[in-house]
Amino acid sequence: MGTRYAGTTIEKRALNAFIKLVRASQSVSARVETHLGELGLTVSQFGTLEALFHLGPLNQKTLAGKILKSTGNITMVIDNLEKRGLVKRTRDEQDRRHYSVAITRKGDALLTSFFPKHAARIVEEMSVLSAVEQETLGDLCKKVGLQRAQPQKRNNKRTAS
Predict the structure, then answer these.
(1) What are 86-124's pLDDT values in tens digits?
(2) Which of 16, 52, 68, 152 satisfies CB 3.0 to 4.6 Å to 2 for a cystine?
(3) Do residues 69 and 77 make contact, with C-beta atoms less than 8 angstroms apart?
(4) Where are the domains of the chain?
(5) Residue 116 CB neighbour total at 10 angstroms
């Protein structure tokens, strides 16, 4: 179902594309992320472990940016992972105000055993698209996702209130 908004053609097209993007994302995420319950992890906790697993130790601010969470939220996520022994914080020796977060051996073992099943679920979900379609989708999502980083190209005329 598309938008019921009675706007311009441009508005309706953009709204319909947005609705499809959000619904597809939520649908695929719900199916892929259901197995995280096996680990007793939230999506944010899994994303944190995955980032540390693949990228190595990161400071909390960088980690928050990688998983698209606020620095306040990432603190709670890391607290909970640290209680389970899956990550460890250490003070940055160059700047004692910052902490570096690293995955522990226990966290590494968890991701090493679990990640192949996770990747297989994603491959299965994306198999509805051809290789070219997957590349195109990736490119389009990146373009939309990075749009805010680009200078405004549209002529946004403000109307007086």
Answers:
(1) 999 998 777 777 789 999 999 999 999 999 999 999 999
(2) 16
(3) yes
(4) 9-144
(5) 10
